[in-house]
Amino acid sequence: MATGRFFQEANLPEQKSYGNGADGSLLFPVVLSPITNTDITVFEEATRLEKQWLESLLQKSGVILFRGFPVTSPSDFNDVVEAFGFPEMAYMGGRAPRTKVVGRVYTANESPLDKQNPFHHEMAYIPDFPSKVFFFCEEEPGIGGETPIVLSHIVYEKMKDKHPEFVAQIEKHGLTYKKIICDEERPMSTSGRSWKSAYMTDDKNVAEQRAAELATKLEWMENAVKLVTGPLPATRLDKENQRKTWFNHLVLSNTGPMHDSIDNQDTYVELGNGDPVPDIHVIKDCLKLMEQECVAIPWKKGDVMLINNLMVLHGRQPLLKPPRQILASLCK
Question: What is the per-residue burial (b if ≥16 Cβ within 10 Å, else e) of 182-214?
Fold first, then answer.
C-alpha cells in the first residue's frame, strides 16, 4: 500500500487481511506511524496536507489507527481532530453518559469499565448519526479495555447467507427502538444519560421538538420519559463502496415486551410494523459472528483511532486491570 509523505504503514499481529484492496488484500485496520520523529504541530500540518489521501484510505479500510505520534493530552487530541476539518457533531439524542473535556473532546462511555459494551454503530438508533468517530488513548489500560472493531458489511453478508429470511424481514419493515430514560443521570448504565442532557434542555417542550427532529416521540412518565424512535432502516448502503452494512442496535436491545418502569434501563426493539423481531436466537448468532470477525488491538498511550461509522461497528471489552482513559470526538 502506498504511503503519504509523512506517514508509513505499520503492521500489528492483531490485524486481519481482506481481499478488497488494489493489490488483492487490505489490512484491517490500517495502522500508520510517523516516517520520522515529529512534534504535534508537524502531525497536525501533515494531517492537513495529506487529508485527501487519509480520507481515501479511511474509505477503503474503515479504520485508521495512528500510533507513535506525539499526542499526549486532550488538547493535543482536539487539535488533531480540528486538523482533519470534519464538521463537529453535537451529541444530541445520544444516550451514553459523557462529559465534555475540552473543545470537541468528550469522555467515552462513562459506564463501569468492568462491563462489556457490545458492538454497535455510534447512534444507529437515530436517523442523524455521526459519519466518523475519533478515539484517543490518554491513559492506556492495564489489562483489557480494548475497543474491538468489525467490518459491518462482512457481518451483513454473513448474516444474509446464514439467515436470509430474518434479514429480509428486518430490511422490509425496519426497526423501532424504545427506551425509558430518567430525569437524572444514571452513570452505572451504558445508556444512562438523562433526557435533560440527551436533549440539552430541561424544558419538556424543547425536548419534544428536538426529539421530533430525530424521528423520536417522547411519552412522559413520572420522573422519566419513554423514547420511541423509528421505524429506521436495519441496514444502510455504503454508497462509496456499493455494499450494505449491518446498521442497527439489535445485539444491544431486548426483543421481549417492554416494561414501563423507571428502573428499566434496557433498550427494546421491534419490527417497524409493530411485530416482534422474529427468531431472537438469530441475534446470538450475530453477536458470535461479530466476535469471530472483530479485531481488538490493545491500546497504547497516544493512540488515535479514526472510524468510518457507516462501515465499522465498535464496542468495549471489560477492563480487567485499571487504569483506562479513552476520549472521543464525533463528526458529521
Answer: beeebeebbbbbbbbbbbeeeeeeebbebbeeb
Alpha-carbon separation of residue 115 from 109, 190, 274 (angstroms): 11, 9, 31
At 52, list the grid cell: 485527501
pTM: 0.94
Q: Which residue range is the domain that position 240 belongs to?
A: 153-289
Residue 184 in grid coordinates: 437524572
Q: Please name the residues in contact with 29: beta carbons below 8 A apart, sequence gap of 6 or more.
A: 15, 61, 62, 63, 64, 65, 149, 295, 297, 305
Give the mean pLDDT per block of 10 residues along the chain (332 residues).
Answer: 76 88 73 90 94 96 97 98 96 90 95 93 95 98 97 98 97 97 84 91 97 96 96 97 97 92 91 94 95 98 98 97 97 96
CATH number at residue 36: 3.60.130.10
User: All 3 cell numbers of residue 241?
Assistant: 463502496
DSSP state of 251: G
181 shares a domain with 67: no
CA-to-CA dists, residue 27 to 53, 76, 155, 157, 314, angstroms: 17, 27, 17, 19, 17
Q: Render pLDDT for 159-200 as a digit per residue (tens, 0 to 9).
A: 999 999 999 999 999 999 999 999 998 877 777 889 999 999
In one-letter notation, the amino acid at residue 71 is: V
